[in-house]
Amino acid sequence: MSNILVSVCCLSYNHEPYIRQCLEGFMIQKTNFAFEVLIHDDASIDKTADIIQEYEEKYPNIIKPIYQTENQYSQGVKVTFKHNFSRAQGKYIALCEGDDYWTDPLKLQKQVDFLEANEDFFICHHAFDMKIMETGKIIPLPEKDNPSHQEYDITALALHNTIGTLTVMYRNHKDLVNDVVFKVTSGDYAMHLNNARFGKIKYIPEKMAIYRRHKESVTGNFNGAEGLIFKMGTLIPLIEADIFSDKVLYNLKQHLLKLYIGLYHHYDYIKDEKNKINTFEKLIKIVTSIIDENDFSEAIINVLLHHIRHNENNDFIQNIKIKKYRSILLKYDELSIFNSTILNSTSYKFGNRFVKLFSFLKQ
User: Fold this and answer.
1) 181 and 274 both lie in a single domain
2) What pLDDT is attached to residue 297?
3) What is the DSSP secondary-structure string of 47-88?
4) What is the mean pLDDT of the chain?
5) What does pTM read for this prediction?
6) DSSP output for 138-185
7) What is the CATH number of the domain that holds 125?
8) Is the dihedral of CA 89, 95, 101, 102 positive or negative?
9) Does 354 reside within a domain?
10) Which residues, including other chains, have CB under 8 Å from residue 63's CB and lie 6 or more apart?
11) Per the structure, how many domains does the chain have?
12) Is the domain of 186 the same as that of 248?
């Protein structure tokens, strides 16, 4: 039986400028337990594999690589799940990609100590900073000092991905991965949510790693619509998976709604009217699927206000066919809902447009 307590899983592809510091971050770890480092090199065309082999020869009982001859990621393979998790021997799994690195030699020990002492927690992560490789500047990321942010559960995680993958440690168990992670654009967030189904989440407010942002990064350089659509490509399959409680599902839809609002703003800014209208229709569809009598007003106002604020012409009402949602809106106490919104508005012109909209809906 293996005495390995932690399996560190690492992916590398053309990480020649970074992989040595990543490996050093693993090897500086001071622990009272054995750990292994499972590295998957996805057919790098630079000298990444040579550097990994150097460490494999130096630490043969710890560094355990797979060297691919054909790139797996480009073929749609979820490499972490297929090639690293499948051979992990540890009771716990830690993640760090080859272009990031750990800075605290007690990182693994601190996380293991906590999880060993708290069996109701399934995930432990910590603070980190970001390094912009083009400038060499390290950007301090805020720590969560509020105690309520240091121990939380899946309902909070569903609203926002709070976990940096290079900081996370999971309990290794038979349901570590489920089918939905093979359908999403970001397997990391899907994996965090899947594991949070089984226990609570611990956040350690200590900076113990550096996330590198560079031009070769696959996801770190998504901007504007591309980045929002990438995130939606994870949330939509998660919502459709039917594996979460009603409360978690509700929060995932709230998360998706915020992305659609951001996408709407983007299309408005670049004056892409067709995509803006299509996005607004999807916004309304999400709102009508998640609202209930207690929070309907806040959700629908959030959507309508965004649209009114960025449309000076009244003909947008006809264009988006919002009239078909009239019966839903009028189920609620419009005077208390909408008048308070108008009173709080800083723009009389904006408030007047809102009155006209609601008058239209009441026709």
Assistant:
1) no
2) 45
3) SHHHHHHHHHHHSTTTEEEEE-SS-SGGGT--HIIIIIGGG-
4) 81
5) 0.81
6) EEPPPP--SGGGTEE-HHHHHHS----GGG-EEE--TTSS-GGGGTSS
7) 3.90.550.10
8) negative
9) yes
10) 23, 37, 39, 52, 55, 56
11) 2
12) no
